[in-house]
Amino acid sequence: MERSSHAIMEKIISQVVAELCASSSYENVIHLRRHNGPMPSVEILKDIIEELRSILFPGYFGRSEIKPETMNYYVGAALDRVSRFLSEQIKRGFCFECSEDVTKQCEECAEEALEITGKFISGLSGIRCLLAIDAAAAYEGDPAAKSLGETIFCYPSLRALCNYRIAHALFTLGVPLIPRIITELAHSETGIDIHPGAQIGKKFFMDHGTGIVIGETSIIGRNVRIYQGVTLGAKSFTLDENGRPVKGILRHPVVEDDVIIYSGATILGRVTIGKGAVIGGNVWLTRDVPPGTRVTQGTGEGITVELDEVV
Predict the structure, then answer these.
(1) Contacts (Cβ under 8 Å, ≥6 apart) of 160
(2) pLDDT confidence tier of residue 65, bands split at 50, 70 and 90
(3) What is the pLDDT of residue 31?
(4) What domains can be seen in the chain, in order of their start residue?
(5) Is 43:51 a contact under the CB 8 Å cutoff?
């Protein structure tokens, strides 16, 4: 009886293997690698981000016992590790996208990956400056924050922004796939979904943060604050002759300086929220908002717009 059951299971497995390995089954879901190049490693990228986090915020992450006299050694060793592992992952990202480019050789991808890694490492001090300003904005904007260090160490918005600013730098340098993996790591950890292609200015604060969505072509100015559940999304998609969405068009909002967007607000399409505007909770917007405008959810009567100056 037992042998018979094993024989039946072996037959089932053989049949399923044949079905799964038939070209008609896997042609749209399998990644056929060029020159046996592996996919980027999510686990290694996660380690790289944590290493970078410890470099950008020394003492808060990584080795908590770091001292000023050992800082140079620690940062130098960490950057050496990051540069070696990151260049390999960037190369894998290039290989992932060049499956149809028969003219490009792996040696070229490796050289380009190394060059981009150098440019990225050179820009880390700029990323640190942006994140320091973001941390200050969180501390100044949240009365519950007891110290600047609390916002750095505890706030999910700072964790998501750290991943985003790293990913955006790589995205700007033309790195494929890797930036999206990095922002999705933060998305899974914090519930904050920021596309690496979005442009976000200085002094940005996401209060609470959970459920925030910021689309690829969004532009956010300086000193902007948004709350949980806010969506900066696309209203509709331009379709090509085959009925598929056209890639790369500007389809997300522009949020100018000093804007506040309260929880649950949804802003869709290439609309502009003017400087100093305040968007109330649960508001649904698909049109431009002039500078200094308050937009609130009316009681049973839809949206209320006040064209008074916001202080």
Answers:
(1) 186, 187, 189, 190, 192, 194, 206, 209
(2) confident
(3) 65
(4) 30-192 (1.10.3130.10), 198-311 (2.160.10.10)
(5) no
